[in-house]
Amino acid sequence: MTLRDTDTGIALCGVDEDGNEAIFEMAVEKPLAQKKEQAQKTAAVQLGKLGNTLFVCEAVNIETADVYFFPVSTLNALKRGLVEAMLSIREKNRPKLSGCVIKNQTPYPETHLSFTGNVLNEKAEEFYRRHGVQTIEPAAESGLDLHGQKLMTTKYCIRRQLGLCEGNNRDNPAEPLVLVDEDGRTFELRFHCGDCGMEIYWQI
């Protein structure tokens, strides 16, 4: 920080570690200090106390034409004004990174996408075609007939919840289990007991 004279009062200037410069001016009376050394020391100490701010003051330079007596309230007002000005300058000068998506033809790991790829519009299809996918099934939302298709794989196991897990009751086989929804559609459950999970198929 540097304290300097202005035509109408005083200014507190600051430079941060990134080279940002800010200044805050106040129109004030500048009575000469009777005890100049003490007044100069008090001003430097008070201005250097930045408290709960983002900054730490490394040095305070007093470059006024003479040594003045400023009340603590004036020094605090100067300090607050400089901090606000510095925050504004830092935000204005903050580097703004811009990015963009660069189109490429990197091969997709698969050449066939089932309905689980959820390709519903032309843009999505164009993307996968550009990356080497040769056959693409439409998404389920397109009205695709999913009879006989696997609709879901889940770690949740209804056999375990019903107490029919083979690990607990090997003499009471649970299959086949079928779910029926409110529209009368039936869904077959296939279990993977080693991995503790199940698959849901729409029955034909």
Question: Nutshell version of this structure?
Answer:
By secondary structure, the protein is of the alpha+beta class.
Features:
204 residues; alpha+beta; 4-stranded antiparallel beta sheet; 4 helices; 24% helix
Task: Characterize the structure shown.
- The chain has four helices and ten strands; from the N terminus they run βββαβαβαββαβββ.
- The protein has helices at residues 36-48, 72-93, 122-130, 158-161, and strands at 2-5, 10-15, 21-26, 61-62, 112-113, 135-136, 150-154, 177-180, 186-192, 197-202.
- Strands 3-2-1-4 form a four-stranded mixed beta sheet, covered by helices on one side. Strands 7-10-9-8 form a four-stranded antiparallel beta sheet, with no helix packed on it. The protein has a two-stranded parallel sheet with strand order 5-6.
- The radius of gyration is 37 Å and the shape is elongated.
Shape: elongated
User: Which residues form runs of ≥5 with pLDDT under 50?
Assistant: none
What's the SSE pattern?
EEEHEHEHEEHEEE
Average pLDDT metric: 90
Largest sheet, order of strands side by side? 3-2-1-4
Q: Report the biggest beta sheet as strand number plus sense, adding barrel if it closes.
A: 4 strands, mixed
Summed up, the helix count is: 4
- Helical residue percent? 10-25%
What is the β-strand count?
A: 10
Report the span from N to C terminus: 80 Å
Which percent range describes the beta-strand content? Answer: 15-25%
Q: Write down the Rg.
A: 37 Å
Question: Which structural class do you get from the secondary structure elements?
Answer: alpha+beta
